[in-house]
Design brief:
Layout: E1 27-35, E2 58-60, E3 69-74, E4 80-87, E5 95-99, H1 101-107, E6 114-121
Parallel strand pairs: 1-5, 2-4
Antiparallel strand pairs: 1-6, 2-5, 3-4, 3-6
Length: about 130
Amino acid sequence: MNEAPAHAGAVDAANPPESLPDGPDGLLEQGLATWYGGKSWHGRRTASGERFDRHGYTAAHLTLPIGTTVRVVNQHNGREVLVRINDRGPFAKSFIIDLSEAAAEKLGMRRSGRARVAVYHAVVPPKRVR
């Protein structure tokens, strides 16, 4: 299991930095992803103020605005997942995104702890109100 330090409070969530500019096909960046969570982090506060849910599809990113939804694609196996940015990190310079345990499992990288990924801007249709 990948136990990582808490990310809450590292960057001011009330004044998020500007998002990355889109590249071809909405590509934001490529690089290494890791995951954080496990039982010891489940329920702790994230930078967004919500409680961390290791079973949810969320992620930590240093610069994307809190609440942004991105599509993360594992470049080794083609698996992909939509995650919502709700925390700040990763703080190791070699990683571009920190995924929840559930997102890492869906991408097929939970056991290895890391994977080369592409992060895309995701257009999520609004929820219909009945």
